[in-house]
Structure formats: structure tokens, C-alpha cells
Amino acid sequence: MAIASNLGFPRIGPKRELKKGVEGYWAGKIKEQELRSLGLSIRKENWLFQQKAGIVQIPSNDFSFYDHLLDTSIMVGAIPVRYRPLAHLSALDQYFAMARGYNDSAKGLAIVAAEMTKWFDTNYHYIVPEFEKDQQFSLGSTKAIDEFLEAKEMGILTTPVLPGPISFLALGKGVGFDKYNLLPSLLCVYAQVLSRLVQAGAQSIQFDEPALVFGIDKKMEAALLQAYTALSGVAKPVRISIATYFEGLGSGLESVLNLPVSCVHLDLVAASEQLEIALTKAPESLSLSLGVVDGRNIWRSDLSTAYQLVKRAVSVLGTDRVAVAPSCSLLHVPVSLDGETDLDPEVGGWLAFAREKVAEVALITRAINEGEDSVREEFAANKRIIDQKKISKKIYNQAVQKRTKEVAPAMLLRKSPHSVRKEVQAETYHLPTFPTTTIGSFPQTNAIREARAAYKSSDLSQSGYETVLRSEIEKVIRFQEEIGLDVLVHGEAERNDMVEYFGEQLSGFVFTKNGWVQSYGSRCVKPPIIFGDVARPTPMTVRWARFAQSLTKLPVKGMLTGPITILKWSFVRNDQPVRDTCLQIALAIRDEVRDLEADGIGIIQIDEPALREGLPLLRSRWPSYLSWAVDAFRLATSCVSDKTQIHTHMCYAEFNDIIESIGAMDADVISMESSRSQMELLNAFTKFKYPNEIGPGVYDIHSPRVPSKEEMVVALQQTLTVIDPKNLWVNPDCGLKTRKWEEVRPALLAMVEAAKIVRAAASKPGVS
Ligand code: GLN
Ligand code: ZN
Description:
This protein is globular. Helix 11 (303-317) links the parallel strand 11 (287-293) and strand 12. By secondary structure, the protein is α/β, with parallel strands linked by helices. Strands 1-12-11-10-9-8-7-2 form an 8-stranded parallel sheet. It has a 5-stranded parallel sheet with strand order 17-18-19-20-21. The longest helix is centred in the C-terminal third of the chain and has 23 residues, at 741-763.
């Protein structure tokens, strides 16, 4: 029999119950016991659902109160020394302290959180394990065993899932030594966990080894063999499977197939070419788990295509050596379509979230085990939807398709090079040297949020809401005039989110009520869904920009979100290359840029904070991505006259390896986050001379601390060692929407003062 299998289920609960529980616990509103029973009820619901849906291999230990890598650090006792003073706290509080940092001024404790970083190329973030040179691991938690037993008590024999030892080491950080030296000690703890799981009655165990997709060198190959030889020795009669996902294993595939394990999971959505190779190379003792249902995107599967892949595998391996699965853990999709009553029914029919994907896996498996007749109706219904989607009028907009095809190289070019534009712009705006500006948003106050909520629930009329927004914008403009900023912004009060705001006004997008996915800890995001050709029916921001500009003689920047960021922070259609979708969004933004310019807005900023995070996992794919991403930005912005000044903004440092592409975007001015790693950014500019104007952030807006003007003077002077004074702008790191006015007021005032000091110093004769 082929096995219907799942790799992991979302743990936030269908209505983000976990978020509410965890945040309630942090706020002291609920007790640990209550939070723990909430966790249990989410796990139970997930297990029961999967069991009922026909999944045979049901994961456990895929639940987490914060992050599964942090759980693993705790499991193996990898707790950084700085948390030792917290031994008096409960285990749960120590765990949250690692995730979020800990402050207790009475005790004089201020301990920073562990670092968090992106989980591969998804929008999930994990807590980075930290290792010391002579780290000795020891069993620190029995979570995996406890959760297995919980399910067993319900009569469900789950497959415990653990991050595999090799990926755990690879994804952690340890400076100045070879992390593989820690493997023997780490394996001792893994072996203990494994043998307890076996004692508890586990019959199969899944080790997630996604880090293998980055490539397997000789050293890793040896470590893998060492690890899985040891673990399979402990687990003897138990099936061990290794799960790989997000990419194919490339040239490492064969060595993974030959590890002493029972099963290897391959992501056939990301890399279907692996199947044929695996079918010829898999040793006879090995089963393959086939990731044929996309675990990262929200589209209903084409069941017949997925079924054909599995059937092909069965024709070589037989049914007993095949498992059917989603491509990766379903952590990356929302829980369920139940309750999405406001969705356009046609578009809603094209979607599948975690619960629906589990059902697809079960159906494909049934087709294999019980024959095609047993699923005839379901497959026919699926085919009708898939076929109808291919010709849906909702998706295709001929005008957009035509326009995208007609994009010509000249449309990606400004009329003149930046050196010429700079002169024209200098004559137009008369800005001082080191002009000051901000990144766009000002504090989203409670008053704004309340007005928006009231407007959305129809308790406040549109005109009432807009009155609130206008007065907010006026307040922001007056404040900026008062403190002497040079280029103003309107403050973005009308936007709840920098992607949703645009998605709501573009065609080709839908929004769910409850399509949340975990981003990190208790934070969830609800990405828009791009289902069809993107067009901009009417101007999106012009009205607000015009109003803001009417209040002042100083230039006010028009504010837009760029095509790559809109793309990256949405679920994207999978029926055309993402590059084409990105170009369509770029054309829509281009229309907006043109309209802003026509309306007298002379400075326009197009934010691209997601440019870097869009980089593919494999470096070999970077050049192609960067090339179309840069083209998309240029397409969105190159339609303007030399006089119009185009700005862009990027956050999340580490620009060094893509700095040339950032230069190629040819924005007149870029503002970048840098204050958290000032030196790193400056290094980049020592090696690469950034061609246009640039404002590396002079203070960190992520912290409530108000910076002094002296420290900003120092930051600016440092910057001037690598950046031409003619090109330097002065601005904070990022938008101010998460800050309070009490912080923003003094911080910006100090920033303007700092710019004056540096300006005065630079204008003294003989001083440069
Ligand atoms: N203009 C946006 C703001 O100021 C930019 C946000 C971002 O970079 N993430 O909020
Ligand atoms: Zn930013």
C-alpha cells in the first residue's frame, strides 16, 4: 500500500488561537496551564483532522509555542551562557526569554534575544541555534516524546518530526570552529530522544534535512553518513525518513538515497526532475516520499498530474515503497478555507489551504491503492475546476497580456544618465547638501487605527474616515516643516499595510478573511493572493499625494510599493513565470508613477524592501532573478522626465552581495537600513562605488531609544569616508509607523540638527 503522508501541519490554529494564547500569556492574562492546554487542543484538532482525512503518516512535534528550531535547541541543551541567570524562571519562561529577550530592571537583568532569521526562502523566521566551541549537548526537553504519547493516548500513532542533526548544525551559528566537530555530542542526545521514542512505541520518525538542498560537499556527505548510521543503529526496527524540500538535491541526490534510512522525501514541486533519477538510483530497501502537492502555495492541485507522477514511481518501485505527501510542511499555508465566505466563489474554488491539501494527498493515495475508479468523481470535479481556471475570464486580461509582451528595452531607461538628471533636479528643488528626509510612514496612532476599524465596520462614514486621515496628514506635514526637514512625506496614515493597500486597488488580487500564516513567534501575516493579470483600474495614491502637497511649498514625496515587494509578500499565481507577474505589477506601478508626475509630484519613492529576500535559494539562480527584478523596478520608474526624482528604499541589511544590482536599478536616491550594521554596509561601499545618491539610515527605528545628535554626526562622518558628499542624504533606517510620537519627535529633531552640524563642518573652507 502507498502511504498518505504529511510533513507538518500549521500550528497557529484555524483562527490564530495560538497567537492569542501566547500573547495573553505574555501579558499575564492567562496562566501557563491554560496556554499548555490550548496547545494540546490545537494538536488534538490537527491530528484528528488528518486522521479523518485519511492520512496514515501523521506528524507530531510539528507544534511549537514559538519556533521548532528553538524547541530543538532546548531539546539538545544548546542554551547560550547569557541565559544562565534566568535559571529561576520556569522552563516556558526561559524558552520565551530566548525568543524575545528578557528585561528585569529590579534585578539588573537585560538579556538580548537569540537571533532570528529567514527560514530558507519562505516568509517564516526561525531562532538561530547558537553553539560554542566545545559545546556539550545534553537532553533538555522531552517535548517530542510527550507529544507522541499524547497522540498515542488518543489512539493515533504519529510520526515524530525533528529537525535533522545536519540541518540543525548547518542552520546554527558557531564562530571560529568547525560545527561538524560537535556532531558526536549532538548525536548522543538525538540517540537518547530516538530510543525514548522507540520505547514509547513510535514506528517511524522523520528527520527534516532541508539544508541539504544548498549542496552537499564531501564533509557534509561524511557527516550525513555518520549521523544516519548512528541513528538507524538506535532505531533498528523503526522507519527513519529524511525529508528534503524547497529545492532538489542536485548532485547530492544519489548520496542521500544511499544513506542507511528507510525513506527519503523529495520535493517534486520545486524539482520534479529528481523523480526519474531517484527511480533509477534508489536502493531496493528505500522508499520514496513524493512531495507532489505544493506545500508553500495556496493553489488547488491538478490531481491528475500529481497522480501521474506517483503512478510512474509505483510502476518502478511498487506501491509499498511509495508515500504521497505535500512538498514540504504545510506550516507555510493558512489552515483552512472554511469560513472564507466573502471570497469570489470562482476564485475560491481554485484554492487549497492546509486542510484541503491534506485531503488532496489522501485522494491521490486512494487512487493508487484502490484504483482510479474509486476517485473518479473527485478527479473529474478537480479536472473541471482546473480546466475552467485555464480559460477563466477573471484571470486573463488581454490588454495587460499585450502590454507585457510589448515591453521594449527603451522603456527600462531614463532619458538621461544620473549625472545629467542630478543637475536638472538640483535646479528644480534647490536642496541643501546632505538633504534630510524620512522613509515614509509616521506613527500609526490609536486614533488612526480606531478610525480605520470603525470605517471597516461601517461605524464611521467614508467622509468621516477621510477627515481623520486629512487631519493626520496635516499634522505630519506641519511637524516636518517645523523641525526643518527638506523633503517631506505625507505619513501613510491611510495604509494599514504597504502591500495590502495596493493589492486592494489592483485587479488580479483577492484577500482572505482568515488566511494567516506564521511569520515568527506569535506574528502572523495574511498575504494577498495574486490570481490573475494585474492592472490598475484607477489611480491609487494621487489624491492623497495631491492633498499633502497642497499643504506646503516644500516637496512632498509620492510613496509607492515596488513590484518585487508586492510580488514577494503575496501568494503568487503558478500558471505563469513569476517574472511575468512581476512585470505586470511593474506596469501598474508605472501608470501610478506617471499619474503622480502629471499631478505635480516631483519626487516619487518606490519601496523595495523585499528585493534581497527574493533571492533564490541557489546562487546559480541569482543572476537571472536579479536581472528581471532590476528590470521590473526600472520598468516601473523610467517613464518620468529627468526633473522627476525617483527614490527607493530597502531594509534588512546584508546588501553587499547584491550591491551592483541595486546600483543597476538606477534610482536617483536610495535610502537603506544600515544603523544595525553600519560597518557592514560601509564595507560594501568601499568595494563598490555606488553611482547615485544614497542615504544610509543614521539611526535604528526598530528600537524605542532616542538617538543623540552627536551619535548621528559620528555616523554621518563615518559614511562620508566612503560616500561622496555630493551624494549623501540623511534619513532614518526605515518607516516610523511602529514608533510613538514621543520617540519620533526628538529623534527627527536630533537628526535634522546632526545634518546641520555636518553641513556646517563641510562648508568650512579647507575642511572636506
Ligand atoms: N515607506 C514604508 C514606510 O515608511 C517603507 C516600509 C518598509 O521599508 N518596510 O513604512
Ligand atoms: Zn524599511
